[in-house]
Amino acid sequence: MVTFTILVPFYLAGRLWFAFSPFAINYYSKEKANWYNEWNTQRFLIVLNLFLVSLSLSFFWGGKILEDIHAEKIDFTQILFYIILQILAVILFEVKMEHPFKPIQAFKKFKKNSYSERFEFREKQDAADKIEHHSNELKREFLKVGTKISNELNNQQIILSETNELAKHNNNILQESDFAFEIKKNPNMVIDDILRAYFISKDSERVLSDFLLRKKNSGKILFTKPARNGVSVQPILDFLSAFTNVMESCKSGTITQAETCKIINAVTSAKDRLGNIAEEPINSRNLSKYLSNSDVQDDI
Asked: Who contacts 155 (Cβ-Cβ below 8 Å, separation ≥6)?
């Protein structure tokens, strides 16, 4: 943070003085306000304003951030935006310099060449020359901007095309299912809440997520509620009643109870009171009892 708050304004000030000093020396010695090389008043005002923006950011915002850091009140979002603005100011500043992002190269060239070679001062132009000069500058700038806009539009078009392809791919994935039964859509599903509500093992979190959100079979969902005798099947059947149409199909006769047991046992397992895992917790007896009594107790 000290780099962006103190060193960046000092760096820009040095670059600014390096660019302005030939103009100042020439103005003092020849009493003529002539710019040199590619420099002009507008260009200088741009870099001056960028320097003032960076200085203002450092003084009014950077100082506050340093105080907050010293007081251990760190706001990373504020720091990120501050750094981004300072970097943007430096980039915009350097683009207008004669040797963008190459201050060392500029200094070497300054030492190598004679004063007259380094700086070619232009006499003031008359009104017609100024109009033509500025017109040419505007044409060049418009050409640059037009090229940048065209490139950006092409990039956006590519991104949009890739996004559409990704959306289609994801939609196809969501529509595909590993199961012969329907998994009900519920936009308000919270996996942690479902784990607790239906006594599902935390180890089955990934399997449950694949089952409900991606309709993928990545293993069996393990139910952990104990029972006095055997396994507790009510959480299993309640879960499947809430999130699939398996129980509805069984009640309507679309599939038999034997088929229902086979479907459920293929995707679920359960622990008994001793901690042993039953790979096929559902049978015709406990399924029939559940269907006949929706308030079945845990000791089925």
From this structure: none
Predicted structure pTM score: 0.42
Task: Give strand pairing partners of 121.
Answer: 36
Residue with tokens 């350097």: 94
- Residue 32's nearest CA partner among 128, 120, 124 is 124
> CA 92 to CA 47: how far, in whole Å?
8
pLDDT tens digits for range 110-137:
666 655 556 666 665 555 556 777 788 8
Give the residue carrying structure tokens 């500043």: 93
pLDDT, tens only, 158-174 = 887 777 666 565 555 44
Evaluate if residue 3 carries a pLDDT over 60.
Answer: yes
The closest alpha carbon to 181, from 285, 238, 264, belongs to 264
